[in-house]
Amino acid sequence: MRLALAASAALVLAAAATSSANAQPLADTAAALRDKALAGSPAYPVLESLTTEIGARPAGSAAQRRAMEWGVAKLKALGFQNVHTEPFTITAWVRGPESAEVTGVNPQHLAILGLGGSVPTPAGGVEAEIALFHTYADLLAAPMGSLKGKIAVVTEAMVRTQDGSGYGAANPIRRSGASEAAKRGAVAYLCRSLATNENRLPHTGALDYTPDAPKIPAAALSVVDAEQLDRMVALGKPVRVKLSLDSHTVPNAPAWNVVGEVVGREKPDQIIVIGGHLDSWDPGTGAIDDGAGVAITVGAAKLINDLPAHPKRTVRVVMFGSEEMDGSGEAYAKAHAAEAPHIVLTGESDEGADPIWSLALPKGTADLPAMKTLANVLAPLKIFVDRAPSRFGGSDVVGLVMQGVPVIDYHQDATRYFDIHHSADDTLDKVDRPKMDQNVAAWAALVYVVAESDVDLRPAAAKP
Ligand code: ZN
Ligand code: ZN
User: Fold this and answer.
1) Distance 422 CA to ligand 2 centre (A)
2) 148 and 183, same structural domain?
3) For residue 42, what is the DSSP state?
4) Average pLDDT for residues 455-460, to the nearest whole number?
5) Eight-class DSSP state of 116
6) How far, in Å, is the centroid of ligand 1 from the Cα of 291?
7) How far is the CA of 139 from the centre of ligand 2 (A)?
8) Are residues 77 and 161 both part of a single domain?
9) What spacing in Å lies between the alpha carbon of 80 and ligand 2's midpoint?
10) Are residues 100 and 154 in the same domain?
11) Given pLDDT bands bounded at 50, 70 and 90, which one contains residue 105?
12) The pLDDT of residue 30
């Protein structure tokens, strides 16, 4: 099957080389790109290079600077045009040594990771009795002042779902739990990792402090350590925990968005902006989050760049430099506000490397002829066009969306994504190359159809 697809791809691409690109039917070239991706796309070598040569690359770190240099070199080596960086600054958060343990008569180690943005504990750590809540709602129901001097712990489990919605539902536990606990008097906060695995690796992620509460140190427990605390508390005796978190922040740390283009042959000023984020969390090597998204979008654009003739519109790939702790999307939207009316489509790949199962298009565009063509090209990939319109696109492009830029959402199978996400297990071996190539096929077909057709995906009210 894959050999036959590869052969047909070669035939169509050869035909494109000997005839004018204008005469080449849109659907045939899109299908050829799809099949070429399925036969082995350029994405995996890009991801292997990034995760092997750079490894973890938190925004603001020395590794992120090396990742930026890697991105520039990689885009140039792959033949992209206008390769450059767009610098901005962030407040970088740098993790130091961390530990947690149960103290008292049954002392034992707890596997934790500090949450991104957490303040450190005082030197020597903080030790206190825990107040354990089985659900986040139970914490919110606790009266003000009732957690005075305690370490609040929430052990609610995140639900595994195909569409990743379990993560969204559980997100406030990690994002807002520390401030909610602090408002009630807690001196520190622990939550069960937002994760679906059953091993001892904790999963980190950013928190947000609210201005109306003291900033208290906060960390994620591994899933099994959260369950261990559940059992200890069930014994009916007070449980004490000692938590030690070190970290510091670096104001005005340099960060970069790395950009390359496939310049359009007829309408270079009409631009499609796609990408993934180059930064990652520190425990793993950022393979599924989000080296995969970088590799998928670079790989798709590379296939288009290699066509005998570039499509009419420009395809721009951005490696966003600070998604996890915010910064890159805001910087990009600000720097490109004047250009936004000419950005004809945007989207971000940031849900791992497992297969895409649906495409959400801008409202009211699914019946346009070019999108019908696209739907037919995507159908063999087992991707359907969702009836619900696109909404979000990804953290790094939502700023453009707010400026009226049309956006797509590719929904990937997220069933196992949160087994790995933000943990030390986010490494290259978790990526299945044929599944990632299905993503590349889908992105290449979509981007080509929009770049080569004159399709207008902007809602009437938002036209420039
Ligand atoms: Zn991500
Ligand atoms: Zn992430």
Assistant:
1) 6
2) yes
3) S
4) 86
5) B
6) 9
7) 25
8) no
9) 27
10) yes
11) confident
12) 98
- 233 and 257 in a single domain? The answer is no
6, pLDDT greater than 80: no
The percent of residues above 70 in pLDDT, for the chain, comes to: 94
Residue 30's CATH number: 3.40.630.10
The whole-number average pLDDT for the span 366-392 is 96
Neighbour order of strands in the sheet with 384-385: 384-385, 356-360, 409-412
Ligand 2: distance of its center to the CA of 204 in Å? 9
For 84-110, give the secondary structure using H, E and C.
Answer: EEEEEEEEEEEEEEEEEEEECCCCEEE
Domain boundary among 199, 218, 247: 247
This prediction has a pTM of 0.94
Q: What pLDDT sits at residue 435?
A: 98
**323 assigned to active site:** yes
Among the listed residues 156, 261, 323, 351, the single catalytic one is 323
State pLDDT tens for residues 255-295. 999 999 999 999 999 999 999 999 999 999 999 999 999 99
pLDDT of residue 460: 62
Tell me, in angstroms, the distance from the centre of ligand 2 to residue 368's CA.
34
pLDDT at 446 over 90: yes
- Interval between CA 26 and ligand 1 midpoint (Å): 32
Q: Does 11 fall in a domain?
A: no
**In contact, 426 and 287? CB cutoff 8 Å:** yes
Range of the structural domain that residue 176 is part of = 94-247
Quick one: 199 and 336 in the same domain?
no
Q: Assess whether 372 and 334 both reside in one domain.
A: yes
Which of the ligands is closest to the CA of residue 292? Answer: 1
Predicted pLDDT of residue 133: 98
pLDDT for res 367: 95
> How would you class 292 by CB atoms within 10 Å of its CB: exposed for 0-12, middle for 13-18, buried for 19 or more?
buried
Residues facing 242 on adjacent strands? 101, 127
> How far is ligand 1, taken at its centre, from the CA of residue 139, in Å?
28
Question: What does the pLDDT average to over 71-95?
Answer: 98
Calculate the alpha carbon distances from 447 to 21, 347, 354 in Å.
Answer: 16, 10, 19
CATH of residue 162's domain is 3.50.30.30
Checking 212-216 for CB contacts under 8 A at 24+ apart, the result is 212/179, 212/183, 213/179, 213/180, 213/182, 213/183, 214/182, 215/119, 215/178, 215/179, 215/182, 216/119, 216/178, 216/181, 216/182, 216/186, 216/187, 216/188, 216/189
Q: Is 80 exceeded by the pLDDT of residue 461?
A: no
326 and 401 housed in the same domain: yes
Our count of domains for the chain comes to: 2
Amino acid found at 439:
N
Q: Does the pLDDT value for residue 22 go beyond 90?
A: no
